[in-house]
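Thread: Newbie trying to understand structure tokens

Hi all, I'm a second-year student working on a class project, and my supervisor (Dr. K.) asked me to get a predicted structure for one chain before our next meeting. I've only ever worked with sequences, so writing a 3D structure as a token string is new to me. If someone could post the tokens and maybe explain what I'm looking at, I'd be very grateful. Here's the chain:
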Amino acid sequence: MEKLPNPNGLPGLNAYLSNFFVAEELRGSGVGAELLTTALAWCDANDVDVTFLWPTERSRSIYSRFGFTAAGRVMERSDRA
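---
Reply by user tm_fold:
Sure, no problem. This is what the structure looks like when written as tokens:
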């Protein structure tokens, strides 16, 4: 979605990853990593600036491996170099 108006006037696109989960019996199988890779590839292809998500404690490690950083309960990944 388009970035909300901001004081610096910079345009941008944000993505929000929500309701992302893997069934218990498939956890650890690589399915989550594959789904996340696909979602982030879409963000890259669509010029998303920042991707946000609200992880569970259990899921924080996979997001960290994919470049997300934590700011309290929210994690974000800057998709711009």
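A couple of things are worth pointing out once you decode it. The helical segments are 31-45, 60-65. The CA atoms of residues 13 and 46 lie 9 Å apart. Feel free to ask follow-ups in this thread.
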